[in-house]
TrEMBL record:
This is Metal-dependent hydrolase. It comes from the Bacteria. Keywords: Hydrolase, Lyase. Residues 32-249 form the Amidohydrolase-related domain.
Length: 259
């Protein structure tokens, strides 16, 4: 059976609203109960306040939960030595790739300050997951498609598939037209019907399961895919096959760990 891989999760608290279960242990326990094998997280300290410190917190959680927690290292477009620091962290166990959050950092994804970070991702052979938000001046899917065009060796994942319902269809068409642009589907607005539409337009090989835990309960995100009207083959690609292909040797599962 193919692994179930949650491509978009978080751990930690968030200043703007209450997160009832911010800890990695809770997330691992729930995922074990419902059948999610591993989740890739960025620490919310890294997203919101201090990328360097938050990345270390995420790496510590991956060390505590090997094969159950993977890490998206948050890239800081303002720090001149960010690429050098991330280059060292990319060699740490459990790291999946880079995470961009242009809206929180208020730096457009096509800003030149991101270029050294994308070049690092290309050299390291890792994917990049970015927050995606239709009509945002920082992370519109059209701009993420341009980023993917500029860096054809880097798989670019559009977080939330663009977030807003009126942008999902456009995001799917952009993904279908750009070979290294993928759609990650977490978010309460992306319903089962929208998932079916994304698969129909972009192709099942371009859509990745994600939950946005701990912001959202992973049980809801998994149910969305389990109950979608997809073929077994397409469902397997969305739930983990595509992520496993993009992550390659960087994907470590608990079943692979030595007791």
């Amino acid at each position: 059976m193919s692994p179930v891989i949650d491509a978009h999760g978080h751990v930690g608290g968030w200043a703007d609203f209450f997160v009832p279960e911010p800890g990695a242990a809770w997330l691992v326990d729930v995922n074990t109960e419902i059948g999610i094998d591993v989740v890739g997280v960025s620490h919310l300290v890294a997203v919101g306040r201090d990328p360097a410190a938050g990345n270390e917190l995420a790496l510590a959680e991956a060390e505590r939960h090997p094969g159950r927690i993977g890490v998206w290292l948050v890239a800081d477009p303002y720090r001149p030595d960010a690429a050098a620091l991330l280059r060292e962290q990319l060699d740490r166990p459990g790291v999946w790739g880079l995470k961009l959050h242009p809206d929180t950092h208020e730096c457009a994804v096509i800003d030149p300050r991101y270029e050294p970070l994308l070049e690092l991702a290309a050299a390291a052979g890792v994917p990049v997951l970015s927050h995606g938000q239709t009509r945002s001046p920082y992370s519109d899917p059209g701009d993420l498609a341009e980023l993917a065009r500029r860096h054809p060796a880097v798989p670019v994942l559009v977080g939330h598939a663009g977030l807003w319902q009126d942008g999902f269809d456009r995001a799917a068409r952009l993904s279908a037209a750009q070979p290294n642009l993928y759609l990650e589907i977490c978010g309460s607005r992306l319903t089962t019907r929208w998932l079916e539409r994304l698969v129909a337009v972009a192709g099942a090989d371009r859509v990745l399961f994600g939950t946005d835990a701990c912001f959202l309960d992973p049980r809801l995100g998994l149910g969305k895919v389990r109950f979608a009207r997809l073929s077994d083959e397409d469902r397997a690609l969305v739930l983990g096959g595509n992520a496993a292909r993009l992550l390659g040797r960087r994907l470590i599962l608990a079943s692979q760990e030595t007791p």
